[in-house]
Amino acid sequence: MFSSVALLALFSPLVARAAIHNIDVGAGGALNYTDDAISAAVGDQIIFTFKAKNHTVTQSSFAGPCTPLEGGFDSGFMPVAANQTDNFPTYTITVNDTTPIWVYCKQAANTPASHCGQGMVFAANCGVAPAANSFANFKAAALAIGQSLAAAASSASAAAGSYGTSATSTAAATTSTGSSTAAPVTHQVIVGGNNTLTFSPSEVVAAIGDIVTFTFQTKNHSVAQSSFATPCSPLAGGFSSGFQFVNSTTDFPSYSYTVNATTPVWAYCQQTNPGSHCAQGMVFAINAVDSGAKNFTAFKNAAMGITNASSSSSTSGNTSSGVISSASVNVAALSLVLAAVLASVL
Q: Which is nearest to 187 in space by CA: 210, 154, 171?
């Protein structure tokens, strides 16, 4: 009897190790992770399932909730069609230790529309209130960043809106023609990174005066303005980089566009050799309204000529589905061994 108890004590930690925590991202169109704070043991896996819009799972830190952690994990953007009901993209991480894991969505980063700044954050193994590193304090710090961004944008807008309201000085009015007192933000977009047919990120939120710089890293792509109605056709009078052939691994060509309005700007790659890059989903947007009918996912689907998003964007993080299956098989095998030992003893 002693030997069976000893075997149970030996194998029980292995059997209990492979817990799987399922987290929904953006379910119902909400800017949240469900659940937003969990406890997980070493070896546990956390599977993030993207249910709506275009979110990320990006590791940050308690001190910088809306800033990516250097060397941390990042799912990248995971667009989901508005009419998609199954085969949602997923991203999986494995818990390697019991130190807290802090996560945020980097959509619209550093803008008043920041998802992180609206409280879209997640934590594993954080402190329990009233501990300083509690989830409540982490989320409060993220919301404070959002409030700061909104206040800065409001101040800039008020400064721009003041032009022409006073007739006391023609010289003063002439001086105030600048659209904003805030320094413009430069948004970096990688074109064709890792030989993929993508713009990364695939959409940004930008203020008037901001600059979007496209850096071409592989092959021979372009960025050309189109319209929501015709995603893969050039817009009359719209911008175009022309084709940017890349023949270096360090000296990449770039093209910059200055945002002159807050209305959506739609763009695509014009390359058609060997097949249309646009029709394969190589599109981009500035200031798309995610909550409206003309959102980025709808634009991309129109370019690809589909009505339901593919599940091919599903990825995994530090592990893969194969690892999960292997863990399940090992647990089953251990259970059979324990049952056989107990049967022989009894």
A: 210
